[in-house]
């Protein structure tokens, strides 16, 4: 997920929350709710955080799978010539970025412990 996509999703989420919670009246003057007011009313993580946590859940599931093909797809380094320009971000690049933001090192070994991985993601969700 690119930063532009993430920004667009957050804008759309706020638009929907403004529609759900409606405007507020202060001293007889109606106004739209501010972003921090929306998020205090909503009390759930924003959509981009939810997507990142879901991606990490799926990555942990893939690492624990018994079949070799999904694991090989995550860890495989392709051979051959690279094309010109900046390479497109892959799904695993997004997972590695999310893991680095959480400050985890060697996430693939940690994902093998199901209960420990689940606790790490619960902490990250708050």
Provide structural commentary.
The protein has 126 residues and is mainly α. The chain contains seven helices and two strands. A two-stranded antiparallel ribbon has the order 1-2. Strand 1 and strand 2 form a beta hairpin. It is elongated, with a radius of gyration of 20 Å. The mean pLDDT is 85.
Brief account:
With 126 residues, the protein is mostly helical. The chain has helices at residues 3-21, 35-42, 47-64, 68-75, 91-102, 107-110, 114-125; strands spanning 24-26, 29-31.
How can the largest sheet be summarized? 2 strands, antiparallel
Major β-sheet strand ordering: 1-2
The averaged pLDDT comes out at 85
Count of runs of 4 or more consecutive helical residues: 7
Count of β-strands: 2
User: What is the H-and-E element order?
Assistant: HEEHHHHHH
Q: From the structure provided, what is the oligomeric state, counting identical versus distinct chains? A: single chain
Strand content: under 5%
Share of helical residues? 55-70%
């Amino acid at each position: 997920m690119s930063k532009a996509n993430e920004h667009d999703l957050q804008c759309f989420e706020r638009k929907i929350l403004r529609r759900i919670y409606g405007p507020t009246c202060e001293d007889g003057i109606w106004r739209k709710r501010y972003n921090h007011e929306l998020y205090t009313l909503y009390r759930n993580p924003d959509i981009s955080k939810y997507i990142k946590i879901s991606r990490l859940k799926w990555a942990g599931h893939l690492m624990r799978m018994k079949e070799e093909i999904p694991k090989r797809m995550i860890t495989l380094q392709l051979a051959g010539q690279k094309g010109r320009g900046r390479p497109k971000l892959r799904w695993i690049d997004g997972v590695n970025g999310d893991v680095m933001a959480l400050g985890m090192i060697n996430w693939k070994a940690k994902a093998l412990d199901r209960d420990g991985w689940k606790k790490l993601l619960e902490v990250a969700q708050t």
